[in-house]
Amino acid sequence: MKYLPNILDIKAETTLNLLLARAKKIKTHSIDEYIESGGYKTLKKALSMDPKEIIDWVDKSQLRGRGGAGFPTGKKWQFAVQNPPPRYFVCNADESEPGTFKDRVLIERDPHLLIEGIIISSYAIGAEKAFIYIRGEYPAGYYILRNAIEEAKSRGFLGNNILGSGYSLDIYVARGGGAYICGEETALIESLEGKRGHPRLKPPFPVQKGLWECPTVVNNAETICNIPIIVEKGWEEYRYIGPSEYPGPKLFPVSGKVKKPGVYELPMNTTLRELIFKYAGGTLGNKKIKAILSGALDCFSADELDTPMDYSPKGFGGTGTVIVLTEEDNIVELCLKIAEFYEHESCGQCTPCRVGCYEQHNLLKKIIKGDASEKDWEAFVYINKHIQPTSICGLGAVAGRLIRQAMEKFPKEFERYKPTVVKY
Amino acid sequence: MFEKELEEKLKDHINYFPRKEQAILMCLHEIQNHYGYIPKESLKPLSDMIGLPLNHVEGVVAFYDMFDTESSARHRIRVCVSIVCHFMQKDKLISALKEKLGIDMGEVTEDGRFKLIPVQCIGGCSEAPLFMIDEDTYKFEGEEKLDEILAKYT
After folding, report:
1. Eight-state DSSP code of residue B23
2. Domain at A331-415, CATH from 3.40.50.300, 3.30.450.20, 1.20.1440.230, 3.30.530.20
3. Which CATH superfamily is domain A7-238 in?
4. Hey, how many other C-beta atoms are within 10 angstroms of the C-beta on A112?
5. Are A7-238 and A267-326 in the same CATH fold?
6. Which of the residues A53, A200, A262, A367 could staple to A186 if both were Cys, CB 3.0 to 4.6 A apart?
7. Burial tier of A194 (Cβ tally within 10 Å: 0-12, 13-18, 19+)
């Protein structure tokens, strides 16, 4: 590659050697290195299979989407193929959740694993065009993917009549422009069509009407990297990786006040405690944990360290993002940052989210200054509660969630900002 | 119209995708890289090339955070002010940058070399606090290292 922007040396460790088999090394793996370590063999196997059989394997593997929602990937594919072609396959690489940097490591270091996954997935759902939507803040990833796609084309893994199978596929890479909302699948599709990233009302879901009103599967980059593993090993063997209800490898990006922050590939029967203390080396200065955040979504307290890192109702769920805060960190200040984030990232399409996130942030600013009256407090609690049920998309649905959880779990932290004298 | 070199690059993006309008964000990145910002006068020729109404192009430019129609700067420093960087001492990085460049957030240095921009999560949080200069991503490793990095951008 001619030119590559500076990238970060993110630490990556694995006990499973699947998703991070290569990416644990800090370097971009070329197509030769990928093929040497067994890459693109699975593609040959997949192309000899009936697409329906691949969908069946993915369904039986119980793979769930790694982009946050945890929806069963096989089910999504089954819905899509019920609708007539042309169908499109889209890789969501718009990773923008605060604290999340797992897809970046896969894209920058092992781009061919992702590309092999996209080719197999597109073949399975019968798509002849696939798109990778990568966030604007990952320019290096964009160049790496463009280059890797050319490499794959030159070896006959992409383009017309792939490996003589009669199946043809083109993959296009599109860059975002710095909008968190474009990670939401319908907003991503709008953006991919060259528009503002405004989420659509669902239903219809993208598997029914997605890109240019055609059936479209949108999968997260990490999810797609599981596909070659499932096809290579077979679904039965894949089910033995980790706990039987939540099989497969999972990436956990760990950041904040820990000794060894980085991306960890582990089975999902790992607990939050093990992840922080056994793998990430415990907290900086051995301070007491105050809170753990899963991005800007959920807030866990130190009493919840035995939470399993899976998709069960009581599991950690989401993208697997872990941000650790310790005793010296202020929870109300955290909530202010969360409110600022949602105000900034609200797309402005629907009023509850546009105005709600703005007011939530404003009132919290007042609260943290100590200027909030009792009425302000009431308004704050009311708005926080009401952004969720009235918004169009998932962003509005979660814009008040972490703050509400923090108020429930850390009432004392908020208490000291409450007015002692009621001002009228 | 655009200068020849830039026009060729824009044409490449437009021809790359199945549909022309898909190239709009790519073209805007390219224009911003070329001029140091997105001049308002560039939007009409772009809308002609892509075949979209001018108000559509203006709407897109306004929506996406990375595009700046306000002030030209040769290099854009994007400093993460999001959750992880905030708790990992982003303020040290910000005050070092402000002091070295003599500007506040959102401002451009007098010589037009740098613009300082606060952004939400850059996505490399294990290395926090983070910043980007143009397309390069860096972690903050003290003031001396920061000087070395800044010196690369003239």
Report:
1. G
2. 1.20.1440.230
3. NADH-ubiquinone oxidoreductase 51kDa subunit (3.40.50.11540)
4. 26
5. no
6. A200
7. buried
Tokens of B115: 């613009």
**Closest by Cβ to B123, choosing from A138, A191, A193:** A138
| CB atoms closer than 10 angstroms to residue B113 | 16
Query: ipTM score here?
Result: 0.97
Domain ranges of chain A: 7-238, 267-326, 331-415
Cβ pair B82:A9 closer than 8 A: no
Is B126 close to A101, i.e. CB distance below 8 A? yes
Residues of A whose CB is below 8 A from B29: 136, 175, 177
pLDDT in tens, A110-120: 999 999 999 99
Sheet holding A262-267, edge to edge: A12-14, A262-267, A249-256, A322-326, A289-293, A299-301
Kindly report the CATH number that applies to the domain delimited by A267-326: 3.10.20.600
CB-closest option in A101, A136, A337 to B83: A337
Report the residue of chain A nearest B26, measured CA to CA. Answer: A175
The pLDDT tens digits for B96-134 are 999 999 999 999 999 999 999 999 999 999 999 999 999
What residues of chain A, 326 to 355, have a C-beta less than 8 Å from chain B?
Answer: 329, 334, 337-338, 341, 344-345, 347
Q: What is the pTM of this model?
A: 0.96
